[in-house]
Amino acid sequence: MRIDDLFSVEGKVALVTGGSRGLGEMIAAGYAANGVRVYISSRKADVCDATADRLSERYGAEVISLPADLVDLASIDALVAEVNEREDHLDLLVNNAGVSWGAPLEDFPEIGWDKVMDTNVKGVFFLTQRLLPLLEAGATSGDPSRVINIGSIDGIKTPSFETYSYGPSKAAVHALTKVLAARLVGRNILVNAIAPGPFPTWMLSTGVGTRGDVEGTDWEALGRTNPRGRVGAPEDIAGLAIFLSSRAGAYTVGEVISCDGGMLLM
Predict the structure, then answer these.
(1) Is 0.70 topped by the overall pTM?
(2) What is the pLDDT of residues 80-92, one digit of tens each?
């Protein structure tokens, strides 16, 4: 019942998609700081490589870059092949890679629907499917493997922005989480989802009008609109991911846990 035993993730192997920045980097950093060997993927190879190097140096950890664009099956299969070459099992899969698309309702394009759904929903399903042999390989009843899908409170409430495919895609991720959880719990793979609220990420900065300028966004002003009086911090999302990945979370199955500072209460 000691903290070190309940929440330890030391020695585990993880893959975090969309791990080069934003929520994915925060989760990868939390894992790396606590003894996990972490593979991160993202579309831009140079950014993915730089993040892996930075996290490895900061935490004295093994963080490996595996660039991939998870919008199609060929890319998913290539990533799975890379992981298979390096590992005989996978303990933790964090399906964080995601995109959004904003446009007025009357002008919303088909590509803005298809790209978001393909990445945010199709990619989550088929990457998990392809990685099942690795997830099962090291899983036991006492120490099951974990899949954590990153949804959004926009999949629960009406989004603030005109991102007509994003909220539905995250609602689908939440539903998919429960379906996969029911199918995989008997195979010692636990599936849960996190529904984040506002965090200081590139994606949210594009929504609030600073066009991806994370450093130039007034996060304090945005945080004052949240019941907690701030936006999320890396410790908030990483701590929840570590809970779900540890012994403490081994009886939590098929849940969609909001991490939003109380936004859903408004």
Answers:
(1) yes
(2) 999 999 999 999 9
